[in-house]
Amino acid sequence: MSKKLSRNFSLTSTELSAGKAFHRSNDKRKTATEYEQAQDAFQKNYERLRAERLAREAAKSNEK
């Protein structure tokens, strides 16, 4: 009965390389996600600053 419960959990080289490839793809996905978050934050900040600049320019032109 103990023979049935014990298994050999050693991985083949193919399984190891597949596991490494899977982890690398997850790292790439995480990096892409971090890049996308940075781009979104940049875009939002850019739009906010542009709106503020346009508002200042409009107020300045109305004063004249």
Mind sketching the topology for me?
Layout: H1 2-5, H2 13-63
Summary tags:
64 residues; mainly alpha; 2 helices; 0% strand
**Main β-sheet: number of strands, strand sense, barrel status?**
none
Question: Which structural class best describes the helix and strand composition?
Answer: mainly alpha
Q: Mind telling me the C-alpha Rg?
A: 28 Å
What is the number of E strands?
A: 0
Q: How far is the first residue's CA from the last residue's CA?
A: 94 Å
Run of helices and strands? HH
Using the alpha-carbon principal axes, give the shape. Answer: rod-shaped
Q: Could you estimate the helical fraction of the residues in percent?
A: over 70%
Tally of helical segments: 2
Low-pLDDT runs of 5+ residues are none
User: What is the percentage of strand-forming residues?
Assistant: under 5%
Overall average residue pLDDT: 81
